[in-house]
Amino acid sequence: MARATPPILSLVLPSETGRVLSIQSHTVQGYVGNKSAVFPLQLLGYDVDPINSVQFSNHTGYPSFKGQVLNGQQLWDLIEGLEANDLLCYTHLLTGYIGSVSFLDVVLEVVKKLRSVNPKLIYVCDPVMGDEGKLYVPPELVSVYREKVVPVASMLTPNQFEAEQLTGFRIVSEQDGLEACKVLHSRGPSKVVITSISINGNLFLIGSHKKNKGQSPQQFKIIIPKIPAYFTGTGDMMTALLLGWSNKYPDNLDKAAELAVSSLQVLLPSFIFNPNDQKSLCMAKPIIRKRCFEVFSPAIRIC
After folding, report:
1. What CATH number matches the domain at 19-296, 3.40.1190.20, 3.40.640.10, 2.60.40.2250, 3.30.2350.10?
2. What pTM does this model have?
3. Which listed residue (126, 236, 254, 277) is catalytic?
4. Are the C-beta atoms of 23 and 108 separated by less than 8 Å?
């Protein structure tokens, strides 16, 4: 007896939301990568499909970790499976931690494939390479990001160190950050947000939106109040929030960045159970659930 063909289900999303394919890391314990990005985007009304570039027991800041690394062919197999069932209708692609050149090369093919289905696809790239002067990916990834990924990205969200790697010059002042954004605009993305710059003990974000070719970008700075603790996963969540809010305010990147920073500023103090014990810092989903209204509609409390 032949099995009945299951019905094809179609999810119709509200016009102000979208469907996101998120390719980044996953940890069993802790909240980094997709575990930091998916839930906030869902709170903002997005349908999010995660692909885990790696699956580790815990983040790599611990003395040890174990797990699996997805290779490029395995990523492409997933894309082909989605395509075979007509499931590649994404409005956004979000990428974070990627650990090899071969995988990143396949991500570039994914961008082409998704744009063949939806030419208006928005690609938000967090070029996760390192921080505080140190790379934590193979050095050869830097040139691939610089030469191949940046030109196809719609929005780029590097931190200070990553922006230096992509532009080739040091960022030691606010003006350097603004110039770095202009250099990155010239290579492709219309929106650039350097998510954290630390200069002389001050922490701030610099954003830049080039709306039209031939025109100067609209640029801004947001001072970020420092919290006396170390967190992981904040960059992943920040990029997800920037995607979510910038899609709701497509012509107002400074508004989107204000809302993204404000959401983080609301949430982060809740994760500090004992500020003197670094192991007690936890990106806990139950807390996010309790404060989900503030993620969706944060009060802007930044300078």
Report:
1. 3.40.1190.20
2. 0.86
3. 236
4. no
pLDDT, position 94: 98
> Sign of torsion, CA 15 16 22 28?
negative
Residue with tokens 């160190």: 161
Residues with Cβ < 8 Å from 221, sequence gap 6 or more?
Answer: 174, 177, 204, 205, 206, 207
Amino acid present at 133:
G
| Residue 248 in tokens | 């709701």
Q: pLDDT tens digits for 88-130? A: 999 999 999 998 999 999 999 999 999 999 999 999 999 999 9
Are the C-beta atoms of residues 40 and 288 closer than 8 Å to each other?
yes
Tracing tokens 């701030």 back to the chain, one arrives at 204
Query: How far apart, in Å, are the Cα atoms of 220 and each of 13, 43, 277?
Result: 32, 27, 35
Number of alpha carbons in the 13 Å side-chain half-sphere of residue 30: 23
In the numeric block, the tokens 């974000």 are attached to 205
**DSSP annotation of 204:** E
Q: Say whether 236 is catalytic.
A: yes
**Residues 202, 115: Cα–Cα separation, whole Å:** 40
